[in-house]
Arginine--tRNA ligase (Pedobacter steynii), 593 residues
Amino acid sequence: MNIEQHITTATIAAVKHLYDQEIPENQVSLQDTRAEFEGQITIVVFPVVRFSKKSPEVTATELGEYLVAHIEEITAFNVVKGFLNLTVADSYWLNLFNQKLLSPDFGAVPANGKKVMVEYSSPNTNKPLHLGHVRNNLLGYSVAELLKASGHEVYKVNLVNDRGIHICKSMLAWQKWGNGETPESSLLKGDHLVGKYYVIFDKEYKKEIEALKAEGQTEEDAKKNAPLIKEAQKMLLDWENGDEAVMSLWKTMNGWVYDGFAVTYKTMGVDFDKYYYESNTYLLGKGTVEEGLEKGVFFKKPDGSVWIDLTADGLDQKLVLRADGTSVYITQDLGTAQMKHDDFQMDDSLYVVGNEQDYHFKVLFLILEKLGKTWAKGLHHLSYGMVDLPSGKMKSREGTVVDADDLMAEMVETAKQKTEALGKVNDFSEEEKENLYQNIGLGALKYFLLKVEPKKRLLFDPAESIDFQGNTGPFIQYTHARIKSLLGKAGYDPVKGGAKNIVLTGTEREMIMLLAKYPAELIAAAKVYSPASLANYLYEVAKLFNKFYHEVPPIVKEEDEELKHHRLNISAVTAGILKSGMRILGITVPERM
RNA sequence: GCAUCCAUAGCUCAGCUGGAUAGAGCAACGGUUUUCUAAACCGUAGGUCAUAGGUUCGAAUCCUAUUGGGUGUACCA
């Protein structure tokens, strides 16, 4: 039993003994004692006052006396207004450290038997990935890793949007103006090459619209009548009919994109257990619509279109099948949700998708619930905010996007410059150096994007480079590298186990308390699907360690062997947590930097 | 219009199921290296927690309204 549980139980007993009242456990409110007061754990006594019928000060004092008398580890108390500050014996903290934190499986949360799917990335195959996708990918990856680390069995899946009118636009433009250009001939990455034609399409399309407007058509008509868009629509129909030439072009160009994506994914360090392709799933969902009609959840309008009325739930009427019997977006998603569940039988399913689709997922989940899918309650939309530039939104057609590949390359380059300026790794081989720059540059980027709460929008200023100091990825990486260097120089031997007979410094005690929270932090962060929460915790750990490191005389030179070993133990546990926590964020911590 | 999210220091962000004098980083200013990596540490300065009510012993946190901003509201995806 840990000390917090012990205190809670004893407080309940104390209230019974002192005031003959039954206080519910949730009324016993514990918190860490603020640094300016004596003690480590504080009971907020206001809730207890209701049972004691005495003033907060008197209640706190009586409670304090009882706890000191009944709990061996509590050696003293003080009362400040309505707060009862308890001093826990160093022997308890040292024991906690030696028994729990030093154990090799510390931080490993046991499996909880729950299966969860995380769908993320889900790119379109008509253009390369940009900064917005980067946030999606890092978030999806790290949430999946976080869920794994907190005991879930996790499947990462990627639902690729590989068909549709936007894909045809790139294909058509390439056919018309590409002159047979390939990634090999142009030396362009496949996804960038295809994206180039997507932009060309848009440019030519706009020209046609302008021309038609000059002939007197309205903007709306012009958009519909432009020959290019008609051709693209024709191409989409041909694709749906399996036209050989179109299919062949589609496969070729998508192949280029996949080659390009594979490189980007590899650099980002994300992976998937399974890919779904919309070209295989876009016809799904019609069965679900039938099912809904039979169950009376959906209704048919005279023109044959199928709807669901969600006005009673504060939403609107929603179309689920067109009058001509073809699918809309939500039709596919209904079918795909069913298929994913049939494939994996997971308990929970996460969709990592931007907040512009909040309404869509609300509707989707509600429909599945109304259809009586028992698994619908396990569906969750992990909604995240847009990444904005100082100039506003990124628009791929207007060329104001921050390209993922470019950005990552720039980050690595910046890492290189900063590292070279410090001149600490001149003895590294070229390969080691490249590896290090990669880790630091991407570490800075990933931490920058992940430390912000997912639902908040994120401002990225390309003119202002991402920091490498303070609350950043490199700061945490540096702390880790520094510890590793320390352990090496001091000849740290983990086998020696825990040190006894040590007097803890205040910061050491704080370290132990903070480090001990790691497993609870993992579970809490996973529960709210927030890598940001973990990121901030890791920052606290690194910051406190650095304080400790500066406060204490050089550990390497410490003559008291037991004290030296103890401080190395604290350092080693810190390094272990930083490493495993950062790995969950998708960030590699170097041994040296 | 309706729905929904956001609003905390000059800037970027923390702030757990309501709890003590609201915390970090960056930027600014001042200090720390004959000591284990100064990508570090210590200090100074910086706030009517958008506004107004309400609930409560206690509100940045919960409720209501208002203001400002984002997003959505297609037989697009």
User: Anything to note?
Assistant: The domain at 404-584 of chain A is CATH 1.10.730.10 (Isoleucyl-tRNA Synthetase; Domain 1). The two ends of chain A are 40 Å apart (CA to CA).
